[in-house]
Backbone:
């Protein structure tokens, strides 16, 4: 039982070691190139509508 | 050890461990929010406090999950890390709580105050969580909105990362809810350990949650590098420790025709320690205590920890994970405790050690 669980654990880690890096690489390569947005200026301390 | 149930058996060590853990998490949250607001002020941009708090709690849970998952393989590679292992479950529960606050925010629910006609009391440092912040401004219930606002299940980068986060949090809840020894004893260690292996599925879901969520909207190279480094760290540690364990499992000892296995000269065993050997598919811890040798199952009855990596104290083998004790000769825990591990017969002849391949289990009356 212990040996079986250890084998299952190894199999699970091996599967993750294949799937997760591939997912990470794909997520980085395919992420949309968003145009840079200008920063929103902080509200004037005196109030709105100046 | 299993001698009646107490909700949580606090000890001085546990209190110090938990106190340090909570203090470090509090320090991280404070630093994250202070630095974020400081940078925003410097750049003269508006930063919403709720959004910063959501990211602070989410990242704290994510980092702590990596640390929690690293302790097991680190303890396998270096016994020094056993110090962190004994109270690892509290760390896991804290990961769940931080993740929950990331979703729900830090504030009291409207009920029962609303029913009583009272105003909901405000908590210090209160903020809206991701659920309220991103899903409470439409005409749908926040939970309904969470599951229906993004239906791009056929897309990779647009995949609803929120659902992955919910799955990860559900797994963390299952781990936290069954973390007490009550469940460990009633489910039995093998079943409990098998259930808790689901943490790796939860981890995978949470990595995907970050990859398809925060990393898609935040173009920072540093964030991508940090997420990548965390992933490589956790996977590499598990692969290295697993590879070492696999090597041990493959070196199964050959049993002679008379049912005995030769382990070599007595001097090859270190006094006060054990050598772990593989016999008929299971691990056996062979302890040397002075000029005597004892062989016990390597599997602690509490959490199936590696008994052979522990020490001998007062004639008992002590599990390095949580300090469960087993008499070297009988394999039984000292009264009033009830645990018992199988032992193996040992023969010392001509300065050489042999162990019998048939385990013996002493039954308690």
Residues:
């Amino acid at each position: 039982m212990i040996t079986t669980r250890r084998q299952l654990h190894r199999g699970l880690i091996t599967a993750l070691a294949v799937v997760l890096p591939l997912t990470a690489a794909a997520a980085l390569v395919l992420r949309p190139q968003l145009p840079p947005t200008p920063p929103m200026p902080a509200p004037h301390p005196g109030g709105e509508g100046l | 050890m299993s001698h009646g149930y107490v909700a949580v058996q606090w000890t001085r060590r546990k209190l110090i461990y938990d106190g340090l853990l909570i203090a470090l998490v509090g320090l991280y949250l404070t630093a994250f929010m202070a630095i974020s607001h400081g940078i925003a002020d410097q750049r003269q941009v508006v930063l919403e406090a709720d959004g910063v708090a959501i990211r602070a709690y989410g990242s704290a849970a994510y980092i702590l999950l990596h640390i929690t998952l690293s302790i097991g393989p680190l303890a396998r590679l270096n016994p020094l890390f056993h110090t962190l292992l004994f109270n690892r479950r509290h760390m896991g529960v804290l990961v769940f709580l931080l993740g929950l606050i990331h979703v729900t925010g830090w504030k009291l629910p409207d009920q029962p105050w609303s029913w009583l006609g009272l105003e909901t009391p405000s908590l210090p440092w209160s903020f809206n969580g991701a659920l309220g912040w991103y899903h409470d401004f439409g005409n749908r219930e926040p939970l309904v909105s969470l599951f229906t606002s993004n239906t791009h299940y056929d897309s990779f980068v647009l995949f609803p990362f929120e659902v992955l986060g919910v799955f990860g949090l559900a797994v963390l809840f299952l781990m936290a809810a069954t973390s007490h020894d009550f469940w460990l004893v009633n489910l039995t260690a093998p079943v409990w350990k098998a259930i808790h292996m689901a943490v790796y599925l939860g981890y995978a879901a949470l990595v995907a949650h970050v990859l398809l969520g925060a990393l898609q909207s935040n173009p920072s190279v540093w964030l991508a590098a940090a997420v990548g480094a965390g992933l490589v760290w956790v996977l590499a540690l598990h692969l290295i420790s697993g590879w070492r364990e696999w090597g041990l499992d493959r070196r199964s000892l050959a049993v002679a025709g008379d049912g005995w296995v030769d382990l070599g000269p007595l001097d090859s065993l270190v006094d006060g320690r054990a050598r772990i050997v593989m016999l008929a598919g299971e691990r056996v811890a062979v302890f040397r205590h002075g000029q005597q040798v004892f062989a016990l199952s390597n599997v602690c009855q509490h959490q199936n920890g590696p008994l052979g990596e522990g020490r001998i104290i007062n004639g008992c083998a002590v599990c390095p994970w949580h300090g469960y004790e087993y008499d070297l000769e009988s394999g039984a825990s000292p009264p009033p405790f009830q645990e018992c591990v199988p032992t193996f017969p040992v023969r010392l002849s001509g300065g050489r050690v042999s162990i019998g391949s048939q385990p013996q289990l002493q039954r308690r009356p």
User: Anything to note?
Assistant: The interface with chain B takes residues 1-3, 5-6, 8-10, 12-14, 16-17, 19-21, 23-24, 26-28, 30-32, 34, 39-43 of chain A (CB under 8 Å).
